[in-house]
Amino acid sequence: MKAGVIGFPVHHSKSPIIHGHWMDKYDITGSYKTIEIHPDNFQNEVNELVTNNYNGFNVTAPYKEEILSLCYEIDDIAKAIGAVNTILIEDRKLLGKNTDSFGFIQNIKSQINFNFKNKKCFVIGAGGAARAIIYGLLNEGIQEIYLTNRTKEKAESLRKFDEDKIKIINWEEKENYIGNIDILVNTTSLGMLGKRNLEINISSLNKTTVVTDLVYAPLMTPLLLDAKNQGNDIVTGIGMLLHQARPAFEAWTGILPEVSKTLEEKILK
Ligand code: ATR
Hints:
By secondary structure, the chain is of the alpha/beta class. 33% of the residues lie in helices and 19% in strands. It contains 9 helices and 12 strands.
């Protein structure tokens, strides 16, 4: 396997640890590297990966949308989400995929007993990650999605996924709508190390509401700490990172790898 992750910057990426772990575990020879690409040189350096016989690569910020124009083929999920996080190179052509919604759903299913069918979800944020989450929730048969974002127009633009099921909530009024939901998801970067906190009072949540955060540094975000302290089930964000990597590894090697405790501990070190 010859693969890597492109981004700018990309040195912080944990993907080399994940794929390196699986290469060892499944006896796959090759390499998985971080590949920093300067925006001025984007297309040339992507072409170089093709010339150098890469099997494919992951795509992280800021290139998840820009890479679309270089793809020969884009799968339906990536097309719907409007972003690509995984490339398979076949016959020197780029095939674009998006495994983020798979990662989100599988992470929740692997950590708690939760069936999305006919449930109500509250999603905070309307960026690229939110699009993947909304796609995944609708695909799992969610009944209703309350969506809020600081910039309301961006939330409005996501109603196209399902105008009947998605309701836009004003950012300032989000606390009024969380009393009657099954799952709360933070898709914004608020709560991340070095960023400001997500200001939300969650005391009106039902005891059965699950709270999950895409932020995984810190693993226990202030939102998750609040939820845990008041007795709600929580799902941390690190598992989404691990699970979204599985279909990528499968695309390049034919093996759908498992997420183990050992891998989780390695990644959190
Ligand atoms: P990603 O691909 O990770 O979703 P993104 O597309 O840049 O990244 O989206 C970031 C999300 O975090 C957006 O919902 C953004 O809100 P805006 O659309 O209003 O920018 C949200 N976000 C980032 N910083 C924020 C802040 N200080 N307050 C509120 N929301 C914030």
